[in-house]
UniProtKB/TrEMBL annotation:
NCBIfam families: MtrAB_MtrB (NF040691). It catalyses: ATP + protein L-histidine = ADP + protein N-phospho-L-histidine. It is an enzyme of class 2 (transferase). It comes from Nocardioides daedukensis. GO terms for cellular component: plasma membrane. Its EC number is 2.7.13.3. SMART domains: HAMP, HATPase_c, HisKA. It is found in: Cell membrane. CDD domains: HAMP, HATPase, HisKA. The keyword Transmembrane helix applies. SUPFAM superfamilies: ATPase domain of HSP90 chaperone/DNA topoisomerase II/histidine kinase (SSF55874), HAMP domain-like (SSF158472), Homodimeric domain of signal transducing histidine kinase (SSF47384). This is Sensor histidine kinase MtrB. Residues 269-486 form the Histidine kinase domain.
Amino acid sequence: MSTMLLSALVVTVVGWFLLQQTRDGLVDARVDRVLAEAANETEDARARLAAVPGADDEASLQLRQLIEPIIARGASRGFEVVVNGPLGDEPTVLAASGPRYSPGLDLDSVPDELIDQLDEGESSAWTFTEVSYLAESGRESIAGVVVGARIQLPADGRYYTIYYLYPMQQEQETLALVSRALLTAGAFLLVLVGAMTWLVARQVVNPVRMARRTAERLAAGHLEERMRVHGDDDIARLATSFNQMASSLQRQIRQLEELSRVQRRFTSDVSHELRTPLTTVRMAGDVLHDARAEFDPVTARAAELLQTELDRFEGLLSDLLEISRFDAGAAVLDLDDVNLVDVAHRVVDMTRALAKQRDTTVVVEPLTEPVLAEADGRRLERIVRNLVSNAIDHAEGRGIVIYVNGDDHSAAIAVRDHGIGLEPGEASLVFNRFWRSDPARARTSGGTGLGLSISLEDTHLHGGWLQAWGESGAGSQFRLTLPRRAGGVLRQSPLPLVPTDAVPSRVVVEDA
């Protein structure tokens, strides 16, 4: 369309220019011929007048000798004649008496400006005009040229003006023919340009469309998809480069998939292989821990440390096994109707000792009750426990509130703390495996760095959302949203992600 519009503009401008040049050429040539012919007619009239006797009573004869031949030649040669005079001291108007102009001519065809020029003493002058004729059907006009000249009649010595009116009908017909030819040629040229543009566009756009379709299939996982290569032009080289890029991406993706598979297999194998020695070490550790009262203080302390680290190691191993099940796609849900308010209270009871150790209070504020959802109670409880434990670990002694709410389509739990918060960009990283906001901080909850990752996987398994908001120094809020019924589609959450007590100018929302 852009090419067609530009071509139409160019054709229009060029056609207008050619038409103007043609018109100017026709008009200039016609004016030159008219001026030469009018000059010849005037000289011939002067010669005829000089041959007629010059007595006063011969003035009428000389006037007829002036007028009649010119009118007759004008009728045969295609021009009109008007004779005006005699001229006096005052400006005159065209006389309408006697045979002094060509029959049928409208005397208004002679412009007043030209009459004034000749009346003021100029020997000859010319201008463009509209040559008009009086006919039964009405007044008819055509563009033309009028030439005026002054002639002195020898019989009485007075001056008369002769006006030669030359219609330009032939030039107008020629110009109309040229206009039609230019219009036809322009239309044909536009059609030709359109056809060429369509052909070139197909040659260029079709490979691009093919590349788009191939890229979409590659993005959909069809890594063997390739473009067909024809010829050796730039498009063909582009297709070759695209295929090479696709092959390189396929190799790298397969390498990453293999590496990920090996990594998952390694994690799974290590987790399972460590189960047996861990059980043995756990049994020995339990024996030592139970008998620590009989040991000296240093050995007793070592037994306690051994028991603590075994608990952490066993928790890490359990998390690794759970991650392995998620990676293998072996995790399944045991669905039941669960009251989220009861889940929140149970988690508060489980973490009360940890909260007391950190000098933190955890309270539940249900906005509606009960809040039921079809979910796996064990996994749901693990999600909330991880969120609360994480909040206790970062609350720095300030209170924690668990909000619970629901609507007709969804149920939500939000854990709000007023601790150190999150730096900009960290809300999208908190669910990464083994990620910590500040690795140098002391951690009393004994976390493995996998808790939030497992929570996110559990949430996705339910078809829900797990999102985080945080601001440095203003605390953070984690929101879990689940559909009321398994397989439902979430459109909104009954709880806001940004807490109502957040400072508006400092609100930063990031979803994970």
